[in-house]
Design brief:
The chain has a two-stranded antiparallel sheet with strand order 1-2. The protein has about 90 residues and is mainly alpha-helical. The protein starts with 18 loop residues before the first helix and ends in a 5-residue tail after the last strand. It has one helix and two strands; from the N terminus they run αββ. The protein has one domain.
Protein backbone atom coordinates (compact mmCIF):
# COMPACT_ATOMS: atom_id res chain seq x y z
CA UNK A 1 0.00 0.00 0.00
CA UNK A 2 1.27 3.27 -1.08
CA UNK A 3 0.06 6.16 0.93
CA UNK A 4 0.77 9.70 -0.01
CA UNK A 5 1.44 12.05 2.82
CA UNK A 6 0.66 15.60 1.95
CA UNK A 7 2.27 18.51 3.66
CA UNK A 8 -0.61 20.53 4.87
CA UNK A 9 0.18 23.99 5.96
CA UNK A 10 -2.10 25.34 8.53
CA UNK A 11 -3.11 28.89 7.93
CA UNK A 12 -2.94 30.75 11.16
CA UNK A 13 -4.55 34.05 11.85
CA UNK A 14 -2.17 37.01 11.77
CA UNK A 15 -1.27 38.56 15.07
CA UNK A 16 -3.52 41.57 15.67
CA UNK A 17 -4.20 44.07 18.36
CA UNK A 18 -7.78 44.54 19.45
CA UNK A 19 -10.13 46.83 17.54
CA UNK A 20 -10.23 49.17 20.53
CA UNK A 21 -6.44 49.34 20.65
CA UNK A 22 -6.29 49.93 16.89
CA UNK A 23 -8.78 52.77 17.17
CA UNK A 24 -6.80 54.40 19.99
CA UNK A 25 -3.53 54.01 18.06
CA UNK A 26 -5.08 55.62 15.00
CA UNK A 27 -6.38 58.51 17.12
CA UNK A 28 -2.90 59.18 18.48
CA UNK A 29 -1.36 59.11 15.00
CA UNK A 30 -4.13 61.37 13.62
CA UNK A 31 -3.56 63.91 16.40
CA UNK A 32 0.16 64.02 15.60
CA UNK A 33 -0.57 64.39 11.87
CA UNK A 34 -3.02 67.23 12.55
CA UNK A 35 -0.50 69.00 14.81
CA UNK A 36 2.17 68.73 12.11
CA UNK A 37 -0.27 70.11 9.56
CA UNK A 38 -1.00 73.07 11.81
CA UNK A 39 2.73 73.72 12.27
CA UNK A 40 3.12 73.76 8.49
CA UNK A 41 0.23 76.18 8.12
CA UNK A 42 1.68 78.44 10.80
CA UNK A 43 5.08 78.38 9.08
CA UNK A 44 3.41 79.44 5.84
CA UNK A 45 1.57 82.27 7.60
CA UNK A 46 4.77 83.38 9.32
CA UNK A 47 6.62 83.44 6.01
CA UNK A 48 3.85 85.44 4.38
CA UNK A 49 3.83 87.97 7.21
CA UNK A 50 7.62 88.33 7.22
CA UNK A 51 8.04 88.54 3.46
CA UNK A 52 4.90 90.38 2.38
CA UNK A 53 3.05 92.13 5.18
CA UNK A 54 5.81 93.61 7.35
CA UNK A 55 7.69 95.24 4.45
CA UNK A 56 4.38 96.70 3.24
CA UNK A 57 3.62 98.09 6.70
CA UNK A 58 7.16 99.49 7.00
CA UNK A 59 6.77 101.24 3.64
CA UNK A 60 3.50 102.76 4.84
CA UNK A 61 5.27 104.05 7.96
CA UNK A 62 8.10 105.55 5.88
CA UNK A 63 5.58 107.29 3.65
CA UNK A 64 3.76 108.71 6.66
CA UNK A 65 7.04 109.82 8.26
CA UNK A 66 7.89 111.71 5.05
CA UNK A 67 4.49 113.40 5.22
CA UNK A 68 5.12 114.43 8.85
CA UNK A 69 8.59 115.70 7.96
CA UNK A 70 7.11 117.90 5.21
CA UNK A 71 4.61 119.31 7.70
CA UNK A 72 6.87 119.71 10.78
CA UNK A 73 10.43 119.39 9.52
CA UNK A 74 12.85 116.82 10.95
CA UNK A 75 11.33 115.84 14.31
CA UNK A 76 11.16 112.93 16.74
CA UNK A 77 7.55 112.18 17.63
CA UNK A 78 6.48 110.56 20.89
CA UNK A 79 4.03 107.90 19.72
CA UNK A 80 2.32 107.81 23.13
CA UNK A 81 1.17 111.42 23.40
CA UNK A 82 2.00 112.99 20.01
CA UNK A 83 4.49 115.52 21.31
CA UNK A 84 7.56 116.12 19.21
CA UNK A 85 11.02 117.60 19.43
CA UNK A 86 13.08 118.95 16.62
CA UNK A 87 15.87 116.66 15.54
CA UNK A 88 19.27 118.37 15.80
CA UNK A 89 20.74 118.72 12.32
CA UNK A 90 24.48 118.41 11.70
CA UNK A 91 26.11 121.69 10.67
Amino acid sequence: MNQKVENVETVSEPNKITEEELKELQEHVNKINNAQLQVGQLATQKHSILVDLIPELQQGLRTFQEKLEKAYGPVNVNITDGTYEETPQPK
